[in-house]
Design goal:
two-stranded parallel sheet, 2 strands
């Protein structure tokens, strides 16, 4: 009997605590699409990425051309010349791979460029969300894009426009 009363009291206290929390949603994609600086940063990243991709493709084509030339000349070459040509092809392919890793690898130039352009915008959005949460007393703010288990959420708890307004982009 005593345990059931204690359990009931604990369950009641937990329920009251859970009800006191306020939740809100944001839609990060919507917010980012309405921040002009993000669009400009993305355009810069696309231009740089295309330029670097072109460099990598050029080097790869050079390696491919060297290999095709080697294949067509192989019957006329001595063993020493074959080895030299094979090494040239391998070196060119290796250079293309290294350039690709340098630009597009996990810690590559594109990653660093994205960090330098996008991170300040994300930090600004985070600070705006944090400010709204503190001001309006939200315990949790969830990005609906990353919370794939949300099937339905009332538009009344979506504060994306509030975040945009706090950032100075009224919608």
């Amino acid at each position: 009997m005593r345990k059931s009363i204690l359990l009931s009291i604990m369950l009641f206290a937990f329920t009251m605590g859970a009800n006191a929390q306020k939740f809100a949603l944001i839609y990060m994609e919507y917010i980012l699409k309405n921040v002009p600086a993000y669009e400009r940063a993305n355009e810069q990243l696309n231009q740089v990425s295309k330029r670097w991709q072109s460099e990598v493709e050029t080097l790869s084509k050079e390696a491919e051309t060297l290999y095709k030339n080697y294949q067509s000349e192989a019957v006329f070459l001595s063993a020493e010349q074959k080895t030299k040509k094979e090494n040239e092809v391998v070196e060119k392919e290796k250079a293309a791979g290294e350039l690709k890793r340098k630009y597009f690898g996990p810690e590559g130039e594109l990653f660093k460029k994205r960090e330098s352009l996008i991170k300040p915008i994300q930090d600004e959005i985070y600070n705006a969300v944090k400010g709204i949460a503190e001001t309006k007393g939200y315990s949790v703010i969830i990005d609906r894009a990353s919370a794939s288990s949300i099937i339905f959420a009332s538009p009344q708890i979506d504060i994306s426009n509030d975040v945009l307004a706090k950032l100075g982009y009224s919608n």
